[in-house]
Specification:
binds alpha-D-glucopyranuronic acid; about 20% strand; Rossmann fold; alpha/beta; 9-stranded mixed beta sheet; 9 strands
Length: about 425
């Protein structure tokens, strides 16, 4: 039939209608039905948090020996019900120095790029590290943190090797072939105020998180999951656990770097990487300090408040972040045998700094604060000061104890203000400075 206009025939209309219905069906299958987020403090369910200082059988935790056993109970719950169990197999690691620049950042830093090759049963994976160390200092503290868009994205220095792995956020980065390109150089520089960090005497070790595991649902067929391939079950480790595991492999290497103080290594992460940093800190006591930036749901924020992002929302949008068992708690926060203050408590007695942002309601700033309050008794049992606040502080009024906290103005992000907070907190613990 010769048609000049673009009206559809009745049979085409039917086909379009069927196609539309199929699309809606497919969308509800993959995205599920997630109730709208609650942002109303007066619409909060009543809740009682699980007591970190009470054994599963109801006995109280009385001393540090008891805590050791209770800690194991809590750790097992998070591993089997939330993040998934990390593999115990030991990988071989080879470090290759690719570049070294003695006068980076206008002479402030010694810069290195190192390729870590992890091998396991004939398979291997490369993780590229970008390292900045303060020039002329010895035994320096360092912050290990992943970046979102490749090592070359964290600095305006134009000679950093381009990340070679796949990029999850390809649309935003104008990437067509899922590889990084020149357009993303420096794109994340505002999140890494390198000069300020170096001037304060701290080093930085970063890696692109996609080198460790991709941030999309690939059926666990790439990244470190491919190294340890095997049958997947309800407790198998998911992607956040893979990133946490990767933090520990980076730490394995960092502990061999002569310029770095092995007892002053901090793990830091923003948002999804903040969730991973908390799990890394809980899983690996060699991290001397943990920093969670805006980690929110399933990170620092209490789940039972049902404020902002919920378990159902996170499991629906990011089904590959947590293990199969975690889906049991969609819409059932009150039935969870743990809550996020217990994740924080697993880090005790090591210093922990949690940050929120005023406009980042999706991550529930108040829920992050209350989680610190509820983790404090564990620190106190271990002879520490814990968290010296019961009321939420105002904007830009950091609370500094063994657990520290600040909330700043602005949105979900990492800013110079956040870094100042991290480093003041680290100085307080590592250099014994008084509170600023
Ligand atoms: C989404 C997600 C959060 C996560 C954040 C991020 O908003 O829902 O849980 O923390 O992305 O990683 O930026």
């Amino acid at each position: 039939m010769n048609r000049t206009c673009c009206y559809a025939t009745p049979s085409e209309m039917r086909q379009i209608g069927i196609f539309a219905l199929l699309c809606i069906f497919a969308m509800t299958q993959s995205y599920g039905q997630v109730p709208a987020a609650n942002y109303d403090e007066s619409n909060m369910p009543e809740y009682t948090l699980p007591d970190p200082l009470m054994f599963e059988d109801g006995r109280p935790v009385k001393d540090t020996l008891d805590w050791k056993r209770r800690r194991a109970e809590i750790y097992t719950l998070f591993a089997s019900e939330s993040f998934g169990v990390m593999p115990s197999g030991k990988v071989e690691m080879k470090a290759t120095l690719l570049t070294e620049k003695p006068q980076a950042l206008d002479g402030l830093a010694l810069r290195r790029e190192v390729k870590l090759t992890l091998s396991y049963h004939g398979k291997s994976l490369d993780i590229m590290l970008l390292i900045y160390l303060p020039k002329g200092l010895h035994s320096v503290p360092v912050v290990i943190g992943y970046n979102y868009e490749g090592n070359h994205s964290i600095t305006s220095e134009s000679d950093i090797l381009l990340t070679e792995s796949w990029m999850a956020n390809s649309k935003k980065l104008k990437i067509t072939d899922h590889k990084a390109n020149e357009a993303s150089r420096g794109s994340q520089a505002s999140r890494w105020p390198l000069k300020e960090i170096l001037q304060r005497g701290y080093g930085v070790v970063t890696a692109y998180y996609g080198d460790v595991d991709p941030d999309f649902d690939d059926g666990f067929s790439n990244g470190v999951h491919a190294l340890f391939s095997g049958p997947v079950n309800e407790t198998s480790w998911a992607t956040i656990a893979a990133w946490a595991w990767g933090y520990s492999r980076i730490l394995d290497y960092v502990l061999t770097v002569p310029e770095i103080n092995p007892s002053q290594i901090i793990v830091q992460g923003h948002s999804r990487q903040g969730k991973a940093a908390l799990w890394a800190g809980a899983s690996d006591s060699r991290f001397a300090m943990v920093i969670s930036n805006n980690s929110g749901c399933s990170g620092a924020a209490l789940s039972r408040r049902i404020f902002g992002e919920t378990i159902a929302a996170i499991n629906t949008t990011f089904p590959y972040w947590f293990c199969g068992n975690y889906k049991k708690y969609n819409g059932k926060e009150q039935d969870m045998p743990f809550d996020q203050h217990e994740l924080l408590a697993l880090i005790a007695p090591r210093p922990l700094y949690v940050t929120s942002a005023q406009e980042d309601l999706w991550a529930d700033p108040k829920g992050e604060f209350l989680s610190c309050v509820a983790a404090s008794p564990v620190y106190e049992l271990l002879g520490k000061q814990g968290f010296p606040a019961k009321e939420m502080p105002g904007l830009h009024q950091p609370v500094i104890g063994d657990i520290g906290y600040h909330i700043r103005a602005g949105a979900h992000d990492v800013t110079s203000y956040d870094w100042k907070g991290y480093l003041d907190f680290a100085d307080y613990h590592f250099k014994k400075t008084s509170q600023r």
